[in-house]
Amino acid sequence: MLFSNSPEKFWNLISSKYAASPISDRSAYETKITKLKTYLTPEMSMLDIGCATGTQCGDIANNVKQVVGIDISSKLLAIAEQRMAERNLDNVEFIQTSAFDEKFQPGSFDAVMAFHVLHFFEDTDVVVKRVHELLQPGGIFISETACLGDKNKFMGSLLRFAGHLGLLPKINLLTNQQLEESLKKTGFSIIEKTKFSKRSDAEFTLIAKKI
């Protein structure tokens, strides 16, 4: 099965395994969520791009007015729906779509999250520009991205080649510098850059504000 032109098939295929995988560093995750909550208020509307099974959506739902989680995988979203029902959260909505859906008008959200998803976009500048457009002035963008361009070059090239063959979704070998430059030139100010985990392969969490 080839996934380069239909990545939703890949995520649907691995959805059960993905959902069953535990958070690799629970302490770091909980510290991160606690920090993110300091940027949220009860009046906020938040978008989670690539929400998968909705873990982050559920964990910040009580701190905002509304959370909209979007993903291309129908099977991951079905799991997310079930988990939100189990948690009795009624201010979380899941939609199978992308950030470029025209139903999302400029300035629709006060905050946007994108965890481990930006490297699946071919053009980082385009998606960062879209996030900027979706945010209200002063809105917050929280991202955590696999910047494979800063890591093992051989492994990164191998993953990219697998993407071109269609064995995996296509992967952009981003570097942290490229991502930060994209944010700044689009009109974001990076207000926090933190590694919550002490693991050597941990990614930076960036918190940026729309100027």
Characterise the protein shown here.
This protein has about 210 residues and is an alpha/beta fold. The chain has a single domain, classed as 3-Layer(aba) Sandwich (Rossmann fold). The chain has 8 helices and 7 strands. It has helices at about 5-15, 15-20, 25-35, 55-60, 75-85, 125-135, 155-165, 175-185; strands at about 45-50, 65-70, 90-95, 110-115, 135-145, 190-195, 205-210. Strands 3-2-1-4-5-7-6 form a 7-stranded mixed sheet, sandwiched between helices. α5 (about 75-85) links the parallel β2 and β3. It is globular, with a radius of gyration of 16 Å. The protein starts with 6 loop residues before the first helix and ends with a strand. Mean pLDDT is about 90; it is low at about 160-165.
Compact overview of the structure:
This protein has 211 residues and is an alpha/beta fold. The chain has helices at residues 7-13, 15-20, 26-37, 55-60, 74-86, 124-134, 153-165, 176-186, and strands at residues 45-49, 66-71, 92-96, 109-115, 135-144, 188-194, 205-210.
Topology:
Elements lengths: L6 H7 L1 H6 L5 H12 L7 E5 L5 H6 L5 E6 L2 H13 L5 E5 L12 E7 L8 H11 E10 L8 H13 L10 H11 L1 E7 L10 E6 L1
Parallel strand pairs: 1-2, 1-4, 2-3, 4-5
Antiparallel strand pairs: 5-7, 6-7
